[in-house]
Amino acid sequence: MNSELRQNVLKSLEAGIRLDGRKTDEYRKISVEYGISVNAEGSARVKIGETEILAGVKLSVESPYPDSPNQGTMMVGAELLPLSNPEFEAGPPGIQAIEIARVVDRGIRESETIDTKKLCIKEGEKAWTVIIDICTINDDGNLFDASALASMAALQNAVFPSYENEKIDYKKKTKEKLPLSKAPVSVTVMKIDKYFIVDPLPEEERILDARLTVATTEDGKICAMQKGGDTPLSIEDVDRMIDIAIEKTQELRGHLKR
Description:
With about 260 residues, the protein is α+β, with helices and mostly antiparallel strands. The chain has five helices and twelve strands.
């Protein structure tokens, strides 16, 4: 089955088009909607083609880690809901969900998007923890880029809840935004045979040779990369994939708040 599918995909790529008529470096329609949940401290919905992702931000007050007593923390989790893809199963996160969460986490963490020192309430005792939850509503390919974009939009949308007398009132939100200094965006480039594509369809993902997710900040600085797929990449492959990712990042970034 995959052999026949691969031949069909390669035949299209040789003609310079994809199965759905797009160019190799062309994204499907992208939309970002902010503030979709009244109960989350921040939330966003991202659609890339028929792929739909929801991301929410919750804030809690916890004890800081002993090695960073004056800093808050961040956690990212992804849930691949069975309603979004019949291949997803209910229960603990699988390998794909864990990888998506880690890729999103790394892009935000390594770029130092959140000023974690400003999350400190009382050094060594209390600090804010930022929790990002990613949920798939429909999987039509490219969950990595959609999840990263939704998470960044949710962070931009987030505000602190009321915190008085060491108690959080989640029903009462302030106007204070999260201390964000950057807005990393991820672009995943896939290699199939000798061709490089972005925004893959599920059919293309099933026959990939390798993929590289590249997270960059506004100034074009690479803050994180994640390689996937079983086929090794040459230095020339990596250079080409990074160039494509940096070029396409601006397109995705244009959908975020300035």
